[in-house]
Every structure is written in structure tokens, then in C-alpha cells.
């Protein structure tokens, strides 16, 4: 089971992904776990965000949208 993060005024998806999951590349996993907040670009304070459990092996492949699927 994942953990939670309480937003601070001015948080963004990529900032939350970087601070909680170690990489902004994990942003799609964060969005998937928080579909009801997908419309928010800059967060107000006090929202409870679910932080999914992901393995580091997920982050070893280059995202398909960046081109060839080589090791990072």
C-alpha cells in the first residue's frame, strides 16, 4: 500500500513526483493514483495525494515517448 502526501500551496505534479518518488519521470504513476485531481496544475494547500508504491525497476527504462527504449 502506498503512502500519502499533503499538498502545500504551489505544489505541482512534477514537484510532488520528484520529492516523493525520486523522479519527475514517475509523474504518470502519480496521476494514475490520483485521477480525481488530474485537472489541477498548481495545487492549493491541504489536499491528500496518494503516493503509489513503485519499484525502481520501472524507472530503468527510457519512457516510450522519448524514443528508443534504451537503458537510462
Report what the structure shows.
- The protein has 72 residues and is of the alpha+beta class.
- The chain has one domain (3-56): Membrane-bound Lytic Murein Transglycosylase D, Chain A (Roll).
- 22% of the residues lie in helices and 11% in strands.
- The protein has 2 helices and 2 strands, in the order E-H-H-E.
- The chain has helices at residues 13-21, 27-33, and strands at residues 3-6, 48-51.
- It has a two-stranded antiparallel ribbon.
- The mean pLDDT is 85.
Offer a quick outline of the entry.
22% of the residues lie in helices and 11% in strands. It has two helices and two strands. Strands 1-2 form a two-stranded antiparallel sheet.
Number of beta-strand segments: 2
Q: Tell me which CATH architecture applies here.
A: Roll
Tell me the overall shape: globular
Rg? 13 Å
Instruction: Report strand order across the widest sheet.
Output: 1-2
Entry keywords:
72 residues, alpha+beta, Membrane-bound Lytic Murein Transglycosylase D, Chain A, two-stranded antiparallel sheet, 2 helices, 22% helix
Amino acid at each position: 500500500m502506498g503512502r500519502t502526501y499533503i499538498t502545500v500551496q504551489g505544489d505541482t505534479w512534477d514537484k510532488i513526483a520528484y520529492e516523493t518518488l525520486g523522479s519527475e519521470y514517475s509523474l504518470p504513476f502519480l496521476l494514475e493514483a490520483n485521477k480525481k485531481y488530474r485537472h489541477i496544475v498548481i495545487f492549493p494547500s491541504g489536499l491528500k495525494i496518494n503516493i503509489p508504491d513503485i519499484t525502481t525497476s520501472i524507472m530503468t527504462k527510457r519512457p516510450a515517448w522519448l524514443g528508443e527504449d534504451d537503458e537510462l
